[in-house]
Each structure stands twice: as structure tokens, then as C-alpha cells.
Amino acid sequence: xxxxxxxxxxxxxxxxxxxxxxxxxxxxxxxxxxxxxxxxxxxxxxxxxxxxxxxxxxxxxxxxxxxxxxxxxxxxxxxxxxxxxxxxxxxxxxxxxxxxxxxxxxxxxxxxxxxxxxxxxxxxxxxxxxxxxxxxxxxxxxxxxxxxxxxxxxxxxxxxxxxxxxxxxxxxxxxxxxxxxxxxxxxxxxxxxxxxxxxxxxxxxxxxxxx
Amino acid sequence: xxxxxxxxxxxxxxxxxxxxxxxxxxxxxxxxxxxxxxxxxxxxxxxxxxxxxxxxxxxxxxxxxxxxxxxxxxxxxxxxxxxxxxxxxxxxxxxxxxxxxxxxxxxxxxxxxxxxxxxxxxxxxxxxxxxxxxxxxxxxxxxxxxxxxxxxxxxxxxxxxxxxxxxxxxxxxxxxxxxxxxxxxxxxxxxxxx
Lengths: 211, 194
What we know:
Chain B: This is GINS subunit domain-containing protein. Chain A is mainly alpha-helical. Chain A has helices at about 15-20, 55-65, 80-90, 105-115, 120-145, 160-180, 190; strands at about 25-30, 35-40, 40-45, 55, 70. A 3-stranded antiparallel β-sheet of chain A has the order 4-1-5. In chain A, α2 (about 55-65) runs parallel beside α4 (about 105-115) and α3 (about 80-90) runs parallel beside α5. Chain B is mostly helical. Chain B folds into 2 domains: about 1-65, Up-down Bundle (Methane Monooxygenase Hydroxylase, Chain G, domain 1), CATH 1.20.58; about 70-165, Methane Monooxygenase Hydroxylase, Chain G, domain 1, CATH 1.20.58. Chain B is built from 8 helices and 5 strands, in the order αββββαβαααααα. In chain B, the strands form 2 sheets. A 3-stranded antiparallel β-sheet of chain B has the order 4-1-5, with helices on one face. The model of chain B has no long low-confidence stretch (mean pLDDT about 80). The chains are: A mainly alpha, B mainly alpha. The interface of A and B includes residues 11, 161 and 177 of A.
């Protein structure tokens, strides 16, 4: 699947990533009675007042906008859990904590449309911002280790939006390094002996596969 | 990425290259500004665009190519001293692309290594500034970057700016301008628009 915003680079715009995130399932508590909705992606409902049910995020937002339900905050979006995650992120300088793949988008949608359903909304929001900042700083320090010997980069637990932000930069960088490291560019490198030794400290977080 | 329709590839091939003629070429005196007759003497040193030099070299072995000034020892020393501070755009905006094309044509094989060294050491500087710089101000070092480095830098800056714009929110769906106009003309004069 390629993004529509730039067909040449196959880059997703942030709103396209948000669109993908809207398929994530959330819990809602409806306050109306409604028959089941039969969609291509599955059947949702039936809806009874005060009986929790699972629906995609886009449906939850649509119902919430009309005042037909309250959205239950996901487990990971509580102050306790996020504080734990933030501490763990700060402690390990290499690894990323497991968070939902779309945590940035889901939290933004919930803050935009269901702010009154989130307890300690202000604190939760600043925690998510902090987590995102810490994680992105890690990505940047990780990018410094890219060298001519890097052919693939494994980033475990990185979320959709974070990948999307670094994708164009990373792809271009890897292309450039690949070009400058191709055999015909450095054909007599080994005989001259001036080739720098490969970077040994690559950091355990990134699993760089080398040729 | 080179390609027939790539404008950067075409512009890059226009870079002047100093060549030495191995044969006497008649009727091309305009290539050599110092030529007295309408021909280029054997052993004459002439500046040709890269595409012409490449063509003459691969077809007839009529010329030999000298490495362009941006790959001389002087530039290499400067890059080794402080790579990020060297203004490569002034020397050659297509530094890396030209270098890649020059490598198979000249005897000096260390150019490939030099290119990789230059890119690796300058990449760190680009990386540290690219995601954090704002859209309003352009960092001081940007005019020193070559085309390839600028592309890397801009791609990071644009994706970060797009993300910030999305996070700040705003109008998600834009109304077509024609809809707004139609509605206004239909409303009676006294009615207030919602």
C-alpha cells in the first residue's frame, strides 16, 4: 500500500497514518439502543445503553461526536501505565518500550474528540508527549550509527507515526551510503589499506545486518 | 539515482572537466579558447563538460580526464580537518554524483573512499540539525551542502514539519471554494451566516 500524498516516494502523510489508525478497536459504552451494524470489516453491536462493546475507533469517534456514547480510555492510556513506560524509556537508552503501534494517533484522536472521557487528560497528554520525545531522541542517536556497512535497520517496537517521520530521511541516507559503498566505488580500497575499520559499537538495539 | 529524465543528472553532466587531448582534433577550435586555428592540438588541456569528455573518452580514447579540482589534495585536507565546515556547494553542487561518475574514468581510485569519508562525516552534522530545525529559519550550514545532502536534509525537515502540522490540528476537511460562494448568494440579505 502506498500513500496518496506523494506517489513517487511512497510516503504517507500524517493524516493518512491517522486514517489507518482509525481501524483500531476501542471499548465504548453506548447510551442508546441500536441494532448491530454489519460492515465489510465486521459486525459491531448490537448496542444497549450502559453495556460496553467493542467498535473501531472511527465509529467510536462518530458516535461520540453525536453524543451517543462514552469512549473508555484504553488500558495503556492511564497515568500509572504511562509513568511506568516513561521511566522505562528513560532507563534503557537503546530499547523501545512496547506501546500500541498507533499510540500517537489514537491518543490524538481521543484528545480531540473524547477529552471529557479521559481522566487526568492534561497529565496523560504531557506524559505521551514526553514519551514521544524520549523515543524520538533515541531514534536520532540510533541514526548516527548508520554507516556504509548498514544494509538494513531493525527497529523493534517503533510506532507507525515514528517510523513515518524518519522514513524519508532514513531511506535517502541508506541509498546514499549504499551508493558510496558499492564495490565499484571502492574497488582498490583493501589493497591501499586506507579503509577505515567498520564501526564495532553498533548498539544492541539495532540489529544491523551486514553484507 | 541517475536516469534519462532526471534533471539533476542532466545538470550534473554539465560540470566542466579538464581533459588532455591525445589526438589532434580538426574543426573543433571553439572548444579551446586559446586555439589559434580551428583545431585542438595534441596534448592541449581543455575544459569540456562532463558528458562530452565522457563521450570522447569512451568512444575514441581521444582524451584523458584529470580529476576535477574538488577532488584534489587540498580539498581532501580540508574535509579531513573539519568536514562539516567545508563549503562543497561552491566547489561543486553535484559533488557526490560527479564523483561517482568520475571514479571509473580516472586512475586515481582513492576518490571513492574520499567520497564515502566526506559523506559519512558530513552526514552527522545534517542528522543533528535536520529533525529539530524549524520551518521558519534555515540553519547556517544549509548553503554549504551539496544537492544530495540538501535532499536528505529537506526530506527530514519536511516530514517533521508535516507531523507537527498534523499534531497541531486544524481543519481536517477543506470545503471546496465553490460551495461557500454558492451558499452566500442564496441567503437572503438579512440572514446571518452560521
